[in-house]
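PROTEIN DESIGN WORKSHEET
SECTION A - STRUCTURE
LENGTH: 246
TOKENS:
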């Protein structure tokens, strides 16, 4: 695992996006196609803005997935991750993707997990953009996370710390408005990505960063599993890196 600390959030986002863009170009050069996972949330604003502006990527040969979506969430809701990614990523690309496989939480969650699982099994991921939650979650795998399931996607329960974060970031007016379940990409599916680019800004995530990068690998800190991945780069700003011992 490589850890890169930037002075500012824009610099952090730029460096993360540049790394990811280069890995996409390399996959296109090697295989003629690339498969990508993108994340949502406040940690990804700068990353996605830089990624859509990256030069020399033939997006028409890129297939993309995302990490999670709330159960019962309509796409027009301000907190919908489908809405977020359509507006901040898909619609801003200079040319259409080969495909973007949105997660829908509006129907049968188990059936949606199976549908997406069949698709992603045929599209090995070249690079996954992820973040770390205030409770150490990876995607919506809250502690204690399931480190063992081979299912690519699963329906998960959201703990109160996760729901408080979503409320605190302004996506919902009250805690009661935050859904209690979501569809999430599983830990093992994330770790199957050839490269992982993890972007984590802000002081409120400093303790989760410390536990994830310097603590034991444990389901109680889901993002600690990134320590076991052969090609993970973690991008931090000064605030999120403040509690690291090195």
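SECTION B - SEQUENCE
RESIDUE ASSIGNMENT:
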């Amino acid at each position: 695992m490589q850890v890169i600390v930037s002075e500012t959030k824009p610099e952090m986002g730029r460096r993360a996006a540049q790394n990811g863009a280069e890995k996409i170009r390399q996959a296109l050069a090697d295989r003629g196609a690339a498969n990508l996972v993108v994340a949502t949330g406040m940690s990804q604003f700068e990353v996605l803005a830089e990624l859509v502006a990256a030069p020399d990527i033939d997006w028409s040969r890129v297939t993309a997935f995302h990490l999670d979506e709330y159960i019962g969430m309509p796409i027009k809701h301000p907190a919908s991750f489908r809405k977020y990614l359509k507006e901040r990523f898909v619609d801003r690309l200079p040319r259409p993707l080969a495909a973007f496989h949105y997660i829908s939480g509006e129907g049968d969650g188990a059936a949606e997990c199976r549908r997406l699982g069949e698709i992603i099994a045929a599209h090995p991921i070249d690079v996954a953009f992820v973040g770390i939650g205030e409770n150490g979650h990876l995607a919506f795998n809250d502690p204690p996370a399931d480190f063992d399931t081979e299912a690519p996607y699963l329906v998960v329960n959201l703990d109160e710390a996760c729901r408080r974060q979503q409320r605190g970031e302004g996506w919902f007016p009250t805690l009661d408005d935050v859904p209690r379940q979501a569809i999430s990409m599983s830990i093992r599916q994330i770790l199957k990505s050839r490269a992982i680019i993890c972007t984590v800004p802000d002081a409120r995530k400093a303790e989760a960063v410390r536990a994830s990068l310097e603590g034991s690998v444990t389901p109680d800190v889901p993002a600690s599993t990134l320590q076991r991945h052969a090609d993970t780069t973690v991008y931090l700003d000064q605030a999120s890196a403040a509690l690291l011992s090195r």
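SECTION C - NOTES
The mean pLDDT is 95.
The chain has one domain: 2-194.
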